[in-house]
Amino acid sequence: MANKTDKNDYSSQQITVLEGLEPVRKRPGMYIGGTGLEGLHHLVWEIVDNGIDEALAGFATEVSVILQTDGGVRVFDNGRGIPTDIHPKTGKSTVETVLTVLHAGGKFGGGGYKVSGGLHGVGVSVVNALSSKLIARIYRDGKIYEQSYAAGAPDADLKVVGKTEKRGTEILFYPDATIFKESIAFNYDTILDRLRHAAYLTKGVRTTLMDEASGRKYSFYFEGGIQSYVKHLNIGKDVIDEDIFYVDKTVNDVQVEISLQYTDAFNETIKTFANNVLNPDGGAHLTGFRAALTRVINDYARKQGLLKEKEENLSGEDTREGLTAIILVKLPDPQFEGQTKNKLGNPEVRGYVETVLGEYLNYYLEEHPAIARKIIGKALLAARARKAARAARENIIRKGLLDGASMPGKLADCSSKDPKNSEIFLVEGDSAGGSAKSGRDSKTQAILPLRGKVLNVERARLDKMLANNEILNLIKALGVGIEESFDIGGLRYDRIIIMTDADVDGAHISTLLMTFFFRFMRPVIDGGHLYLAKPPLFELVKQGRKENLYAYSDEELKSIIDREIDIRKTTGKIASDSSEERYKLAGFTEQKRYKGLGEMDAEQLFDTTMNPESRVLIKVRIEDAEKADAIFNKLMGTEVELRKSFIQSRAKFVKDLDI
Ligand code: 0RA
Questions:
Q1: Which of 40, 441, 488, 571 has the greatest number of beta carbons closer than 10 A?
Q2: Cα angle vertex 316, ends 315, 319, to 5°?
Q3: CB hemisphere CA count around 289 (13 angstroms)
Q4: Which ranges of 101-216 does DSSP label H, i.e. alpha helix?
């Protein structure tokens, strides 16, 4: 704000205020990252985070979001309510100031610090600037105050519109379609995820989402906070003990909250947050956490004689195998580092986290000797397995088993040596592999038949995996190496296409292969190289017609038959809707359901499933690593029932498969 502005001069004041938001409308990307879907949702996060701040400061217990049928988003929190008095610097109500002055959104003078927003807290005024219409309603001191805005400019002053017993802030906004040109439709699941997160990270707050159009409503409340979060992340995994470690301590104004639990999985899941913002690249808190964990576990193992004098220390990696942990720090002045600002700087935080975890994890182990023994047993096993894996890898490299020079015998390679024009089909079974080999376009299409069920890599360590011929053949054919020697640059095919039967077994094999890529070759999926072939489910035979018709789903089968019935203009009443009568009515002589790829001859297989001109491919994407992780745990973990029900529900084909 310009200091010289006369507080009493309404018009000059207004101009200043308008100037305040002009840059936001000119360059929205600078404030919300972009004007696509992510930027659009940023508007919701901004308001929700303000409500969560009120909860963190101890004033609110509830934050709710309503997606209205008219396209508006209504966010309510039962916090203090934005102050309605005249703001000394602007001469306007604080409500109007917060909503029209850039960076005035902080709790000025309140003594508290803005927590949940952290990096992203650009201020409520940004939401106002990017909304065609916004209505602020404040419930405070027994009164309801209201003010409306258009494109960030107030329609009139804040005024009292009624009485109330309630307290809080309600913001209803309509994103500006001239700014969010791509779309102004919000995604229910994206918002739900965010609200679930917020509830986990803020003990005692209830978050609610309601979608008026569909009537869906969901509410989150986790008494255990991040302890509940750890429990949620470990659903479907075998935990080494039900008990979940938890500590909440404040050191020099920095609150450190840690929760952890071990599972018998091989991977680690550690999520770090500063002021409720996820730090995907970790930072000072993660470094402190790791240091303390390694030290405490080694010290305890030595003291208990579980680690002999001449044995070397457990490595950090060994102590983290199967670990699920949430680390949440809250601090007055978070500094973020790195290109994407995804990493917490603040060097002092490292020591605070190390001290807190060091002290309390040590207590915990002393008090829970049975759990401690299991944790150390697991780490010792990890250390041994790591050594075995290294030996296996060295052995394989020494024997040249992964060298590009020697391609597996079962691979029918394509003649093109340019990866851009090459694709490889991973085919279930030798017989379908045979058909694929004779039907393919040998210039650009390579075939690798895989026998039976590929090893379940989710439950196998690298040493076992490398002893599996199917996996070795696959690694060799792709040309990318594995683990430390992995290099996506060596990929010999632009498209890797998994081709399995359209039945439950086929779905299982696809899943095993996808798990392999997910766990060991993630860049292949990230680079968009992994696909699922989609063979037809039905063939429809017509007398006198050379080419038969194929249907790739039950819906398509129905629509083809409906269409044929229509074309034939059958006037007679359809007495029955049995599928047998219907396909005959449509003029087909035979309807055949394919159970496996092997039922098609080479030409049919090419025409229906492999021909780039006519086939349907499903690109495998990782939309959300956390969800993918959970799904793989369900699918590949030891919880057989979870796995069965999931595979069966997905065995029917879906258009876009997100793993
Ligand atoms: C400025 C000062 C105070 C609270 C708020 C703003 C505030 C903003 C938002 C936005 C959404 N919900 C909100 N709740 C509060 C401090 C209030 C006081 O000291 O009474």
A1: 40
A2: 90
A3: 24
A4: 124-129, 188-201
Please tell me the distance from the alpha carbon of residue 653 to that of residue 659, in angstroms, as a whole number: 14
CA 254 – CA 275 distance, rounded (Å): 10
Mutating to test ligand 1, I would choose from 48, 54, 125 the residue with most ligand atoms within 8 A of its C-beta, which is: 54
**Rounded to an integer, what distance in angstroms lies between the CA atom of residue 301 and that of residue 313?**
9
pLDDT digits 0-9 by tens, 421-450: 999 999 988 888 999 999 999 999 999 998
pTM: 0.69
Report the nearest-CA residue for atom 4 of ligand 1: 82
Q: How far apart are CA 389 and CA 441, in angstroms?
A: 39
Q: Is the CB of 169 under 6 A from ligand 1?
A: yes
Residue nearest to atom 1 of ligand 1 (CA): 107
Contact by Cβ (8 Å): 193, 201? no
Strands 617-619 and 143-150: unpaired
Q: If you average pLDDT over residues 267-296, what whole number do you get? A: 94
DSSP-assigned states of every residue in 363-414: HHHHH-HHHHHHHHHHHHHHHHHHHHHHHHHHHHHHTTTT-TTS--TT-B--
Res 570: pLDDT: 55
Residue 420 φ/ψ, nearest 5 degrees: -60, -35
The helix/strand count (H/E) of the chain reads as 21, 24
Name residues whose C-beta falls within 8 Å of residue 512's C-beta, 6 or more positions apart in sequence. Answer: 453, 454, 455, 456, 457, 636
Closest CA to 63 of 74, 493, 511, 416: 74
CB of 107 sitting under 6 A from ligand 1: yes
Rounded CA gap, 177 and 127, in Å?
13
* CA-based nearest residue to 255, from 365, 349, 363, 338: 349
- Take residue 33 and report the two structure tokens written for it: 């990252």
For ligand 1, say whether the CB of 152 is within 6 Å of any of its atoms: no
Mean pLDDT of 139-148: 98
Ligand 1 centroid, distance to 433 Cα (angstroms): 66
| Confidence check: pLDDT of 205 > 80 | yes
More confident residue, 409 or 79: 79
Q: What is the pLDDT of residue 20?
A: 78
Helix, strand and coil in the chain, % to nearest 5: 40, 20, 40
- Minimal CA–CA distance to 459: which of 242, 646, 317, 643? 643
Going from the Cα of 73 to the center of ligand 1, the distance in angstroms, rounded, reads: 19
124 Cβ below 6 A of ligand 1: yes
Q: Does the beta carbon of 54 sit less than 6 angstroms from any atom of ligand 1?
A: yes
Specify whether the CB–CB gap between 29 and 175 falls below 8 A.
no
Q: 361: alpha, beta or left, given left = phi > 0 and alpha = psi -120 to 50? A: alpha
Radius of gyration of the chain (CA): 30
In order of their start, the domains of the chain are 7-220 (3.30.565.10), 226-391 (3.30.230.10), 419-535+618-653 (3.40.50.670)
The owner of tokens 């249907």 is 551
Does residue 83 have its Cβ closer than 6 Å to ligand 1?
yes
User: What is the per-residue pLDDT across 21-48, written as a single tens digit (0 to 9) for each?
Assistant: 989 999 999 888 899 999 999 999 999 9
